[in-house]
Design a protein that fits this description.
The chain has four helices and four strands. By secondary structure, the chain is of the alpha+beta class. It has one domain: Nucleotidyltransferase, domain 5 (2-Layer Sandwich). It has a four-stranded mixed β-sheet. The longest helix has 19 residues. The radius of gyration is 14 Å and the shape is globular. One of its GO terms (biological process) is translation. Belongs to the universal ribosomal protein uL18 family. This is one of the proteins that bind and probably mediate the attachment of the 5S RNA into the large ribosomal subunit, where it forms part of the central protuberance. Keywords: Ribonucleoprotein, Ribosomal protein, RNA-binding, rRNA-binding.
Length: about 120
């Protein structure tokens, strides 16, 4: 029987494989959620480079957040990544939720990024 970690890795790989098939050269907005923080990167898979990143550990966000593990923190990170990506010249991305379901903090981050100017 597969362990929980193996299941999550398989799910994340399945999502990434589907995303790369429909990306058409668009950068990937990759999200990682831990129990205490949330991290997001805009990655150009063709060049293999990170174009922009944000997390609840950023100094400008950390002081204004009560905790890094709630939907409000995820929304703040979503707005920050949208601002940084637009500044880097990226408007259109594909959303990579990894092994996480589109619910709660992941959904809050995605909606805030859309409001901030990213298209996906």
């Amino acid at each position: 029987m597969a362990s929980r970690k193996d299941t999550l890795v398989r799910r994340a790989n399945r999502v990434r494989r589907q995303i790369k098939a429909v990306a058409n050269g668009r950068p990937r907005l990759s999200v990682h959620r831990s129990s205490k923080n949330i991290y997001v990167q805009v990655i150009d898979d063709v060049a293999g480079k990170t174009l922009a990143s944000a997390s609840t550990l950023d100094t400008d966000l950390r002081s204004s957040l009560k905790t890094g593990a709630d939907a409000a923190a995820a929304a703040a990170v979503g707005k920050l990544i949208a601002e940084r990506a637009v500044k880097a010249g990226v408007k259109d991305v594909v959303f990579d939720r990894g092994a996480f379901i589109y619910h709660g903090r992941i959904k809050a981050l995605a909606e805030a990024a859309r409001e901030g100017g990213l298209n996906f």
